[in-house]
Each structure stands twice: as structure tokens, then as C-alpha cells.
Amino acid sequence: TCQLLSHDLKLTKESDPFNESPGSKADVTVETICGEGVFAVDPQASSEHPLLEEGGFQVFVKRDGAIVRPSTIDEKLDPDDEEKGCFSDNGNGHYFSQTCIKSSSLSMEGALQFVPGSISEPKGDPF
Question: Are 58 and 69 in contact (CB under 8 A)?
């Protein structure tokens, strides 16, 4: 069992070579993004800190400095409805997160940092 602590990513974007003059070099922009939990395009969004367990996961979010289950914030969510996947607190199988960035000339690389156990009850040093 481990829980996602943070992300450290590098986004590299090249300008569209089809919009450049013949023989000109494409401009390259590199942006480093570090933050808590899952990477989100909206920096105002609550950071999501999934707890990964054998056979499934539990979703936690950071709200007002505390790591809590989404169902404690939104009473419309059912903490035990596994069919809702990411919209529930629990899930079977693999946890995944998808970010939509509208660019074919963008690459992303980086690292995720996890803590063994959970953020509230760590069982060792982050890795």
C-alpha cells in the first residue's frame, strides 16, 4: 500500500513546424511543474492523492490542508459505489488519471513521489 504524495514534471512543447518558414527551426518551450498529488491543468482544483492497494485504490483529496475522502465533502458521492470509479471513494483494478492538453507537439516526462502506507500514517520514507 502506498499513497501519491507529489509530481515533478517537465513539459516540452515545440512550435508547429508546418506554420514556420522553410528552413527555420522550431521554437522549443520547456516548463517544469511541481505540485501535490495528481497533475491537474487547473491549479485551483483540489489535489487528488490516490491510495493504491492490492487489487484497487481509494481516492483522497486535499481540502483546507487536510487529506480527506471525497464523500466527506460531497454528500452526493457514495463512498462504497465501486461502479462509479473515480467519482467514488473506492475503485477496483488500476487507478488512472487523464489530462487533456490540446497539442500534438507536447511531450511530458517526470517523476511521481509516493509514501509507503498513507500520508496520514506513513510506514517509511517517500520514494
Answer: yes
Distance CA 115, CA 67 (A): 14
Q: What is the pTM of this model?
A: 0.73
What is d(CA 19, CA 21) in angstroms, rounded to the nearest whole number? 7
Centre a 10 Å sphere on the Cβ of residue 26 and count the other Cβ atoms it contains.
13
Phi-psi region of 93 (alpha: psi -120 to 50; beta: other; left: phi over 0): left
Distance of CA 122 to the CA centre of its chain: 20
What single letter denotes the amino acid at residue 38?
Answer: V
Cβ 59 vs Cβ 50: under 8 Å? yes
User: Across the chain, what does the average pLDDT equal?
Assistant: 80
Q: Which residue has the cell 501519491?
A: 4
